[in-house]
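Ticket #456: bound-state structure for 5-hydroxymethyl-3,4-dihydroxypiperidine.
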Amino acid sequence: MYDFYEFPKDFKWGTATSSYQIEGAVDQGGRTPSIWDEFSHRAGTIRNNENGDVACDHYHRWKEDIQLMKQLGYKAYRFSIAWPRILPDGSGRTNQQGIDFYNRLIDEMLQSDIEPYLTLYHWDIPTKLKDAWLNRDSAYAFEEFSDVCARSFGDRVKSWMTINEPICASFLSYTWGHHAPGLSDPYQGLVAAHHLLLSHGLAVKTIRARYPDAEIGIALNPASVYPLTDSKVDHQIANQAETMQNRWFSDPVYKGSYPVEAVQAYIELGVLKNENPDFIHSGDMEIISIPTDFLGINYYTRQVYHTDESEMPSVDHFKSLPAPLDNQTEMGWEIFPQGLFDLLKKVNDEYHPQKILITENGASYSYAPDNFGKIEDPKRIEYLDMHLQAVAKAIQAGIPVKGYFLWSFMDNFEWAQGYSQRFGLVYVDYKTQKRTPKASAYWYGKVVKDNGLALK
Ligand code: IFM
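RESOLUTION: The complex was predicted; output attached.
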């Protein structure tokens, strides 16, 4: 017999999505293209040359989607705003049709007893902004965007996330070329990262000026990093990956500086000329480190590092070992719930955030409806159960985790993987747009209702 673990009374139980991954209607309602429209229409960038033109057609089915969320019993919903729907030129002119769309969505949530958690940036910067995140002006355009959103939605939205996974919007997009705009230049990756972090700070300041009681945070996805062996070089390489990818984003937010060892490594790699790169202006680090109300953590898997070389290799692309074949999701990501506990402990010990929200966690499995229209989905349930156990243990260990947002409410456009990966609790038939809750959707509804689960 397992003991039932009850989560704290006010624990937030939600699901998450993002605008480009679900909305579709990319040329409707006054929306202009984002870098993802441009990128996904470039041949060869996305699996099967798919794109988000239609996605889950949520732009038209939003009411039905919120109703389904309500029926399933979920209490909070993390969604993102498409910047090009609100400011079609990136800054300046506002688009009332876009604002109205999100007003309706938010009102529907509130009427359905679902708390809105609003993400400002989940990767769809308007193409009208020249050079996107390479241009410092984009950070000030983002400040304006956050102000329009605060003015338009702040009377009803209390919880805000500024930037989702800045490492993906910078390194993955500008250094490694896998995401929009598809550039492969490590220096540009650092420039984009800095402008994203600056945007975060500017947005916190702006929203707080309008709504001092709003709770605001950033959603980071630090890797849970491990050395494979106890060898000195394995520890070194794991530490370096930790510093250059995780702390590059969290140190500026919590400590107001980039990690010195990582700056040094970038100088040695020839990416930076010195420790004072031109893209950091005086006063930037103070803006970036403006205090926040919570830390959002997105967690899916871990990274394991190993090298046979006796000399420390140069880590400029963080090549971790492949996941074991018998223990991975369909993304090829290792299933490692202990990594979530370890990561929560690490960020809590290092940064002492007043509060942590798991802003994403979930798994990709392609179970489809059987002959009776049922979707059993056992592996997702097992994955979620194990990760919620890790969250429960973190809370028991005194780590202030206050909410969990499961990725994702429904199957959607998985970026470079197109529609091949299904992270949803709700199955989407992309031909008919029919939504079918999987067994995991009901399972999660029960966890929410019980406010807990059997602890193993
Ligand atoms: O789908 C993405 C999401 O947009 C950002 N975090 C990871 C998810 C799964 O890859």
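RESOLUTION NOTES: The chain has one domain: 3-455.
TICKET STATUS: resolved
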